[in-house]
TrEMBL record:
Record GO terms (molecular function): metal ion binding; protein serine/threonine phosphatase activity
Residues in coiled coil: none
Cofactor: Mn(2+); Mg(2+)
Keyword Cell membrane carried by entry: no
Highest classification ranks of the organism: Eukaryota, Viridiplantae, Chlorophyta, core chlorophytes, Chlorophyceae
UniProt xrefs under Gene3D superfamilies: PPM-type phosphatase domain
UniProt feature, compositional bias: Low complexity: 96-112
Pfam families: PP2C
Annotated ranges, domain PPM-type phosphatase: 13-320
InterPro entries, alphabetized: PP2C, PP2C_BS, PPM-type-like_dom_sf, PPM-type_phosphatase-like_dom
Protein name: protein-serine/threonine phosphatase
Amino acid sequence: DVLLVQLPEQAAAGSKACANTGELKGVSSRDLEDGRYALHLFAVYDGHGGASVAEHCSKHLHEQLQRIVGLHADERKRQDNAILSSQEVILEHQPSEPAAGASGAAEATEPGSKPKEVQGPEQEPEPEPELIQMALTQAFLATDKELEQKQGATDMGTTAVVSLLGRRHLWVANAGDSRAVVARRSGALTLSSDHKANRKDEAVRVEKAGGFIWWNRVMGELAISRAIGDHKLRPYVIADPEITRLMRSHDDQLLLLASDGLWDVITSDDACKIAISRFESELQASKTVKEALSTVASVLTKMALSRGSHDNITVVVVDMRSPPAV
């Protein structure tokens, strides 16, 4: 089955916004049910109009993701079983003896060819990118629908930045202005684009839906153009996430997920430089990885407060130094 368990090598700091971390175990690109592959989940939800929507997402969005992946894994398994059954029927009609001149040795290979590699638990392929992208989108929309049925049309909502970390790739799904950034020695790599109401393409989308932007707010009310919840502002504010997939690199050091309370006063580049520098100094001082990550999250939060941030601040820091699979 698809399971969520706690992942140790991460730390969070801050207040008011909600953080969620865990490990999504699925595990083969074929059916996500029998294997040893793992996707690690991290998320930040920054609520507005109240904390209930952010709290609901922190408790249930990963459950929706788990359910959706499981449903599609079941369907893929049924399809694979049907294909195997049809192949067995064909094989029953094949001659039992090899044709004249043909070799019956199953292990034979062409000269210079590479023998087929048997995959072990650590060599399982990743799930198809299309499956992960579809599952993330549907999880956002299903959670949003669940809230609408529960609360009706209210002005309560939350941003959502959700990441899935695999051996080869990192996926980020985002709705709102919380942000995901990978800290590399070569610089910051921002993996999400803030959904501000004054973002040109978002303003065009809102206007095409019949709405307007006034004082950099959707319908003069909300500063972000995408969120889970905020059903009072539909169809102008939507829950559909934008999704980015990144091939992991040996240059990856840390993953930073944070609410806009951090990014409003600290640039992505500065945050990454500070994070890497402090992380390395903590490790050199014989601190554990967990302790070092916790210190980095705390330092960034306190720095945002010292620079005058009055918004919700939550920072999640994840160790990405494990070498990516090749």
